[in-house]
Biogenesis of lysosome-related organelles complex 1 subunit 5 (Brachypteracias leptosomus), 152 residues
Amino acid sequence: LTDVGEIYSRLLDHRPVIQGEIRYFIKEFEEKRGLRELRVLENLQSSISERTQHVLPKCEQAMDDNLNEVFKRLQVANARMQRLQEKEHEERKLQADKLLAREEKHVAHWEEFMREQQKKRAEVDEEHRKAVERLKEQYSEMEKELAKYGSF
């Protein structure tokens, strides 16, 4: 029986051999992978140091130069806008003053027109009163005249 177990284990049980192959494969894979990852990390480090030493300062300088230029332009634009706003404010004030003057002129004309109308109405009323008075006198005289002829 022991011979059968040994024969069985040699012929059919391949676990020790397979486990050895698996350990060898894992060892080789990890070594190669470790070296590949190490190279990738070294490349990343050199790329980062390159950017830190050369690219970043250039970008900062360009940004500073451009921001200063933009700031100056914004200051000029702001000054122009303030001048435009002042001119617009002055123009509005001038227009408002003109409108107020025109309104005052219209009010003065209207008041003058109304005084003239009152004066004309008073004149017409006076003429009407005088005409009524004349007519009353005329009719009164005509009645007297008729009264003289009415006695026939």
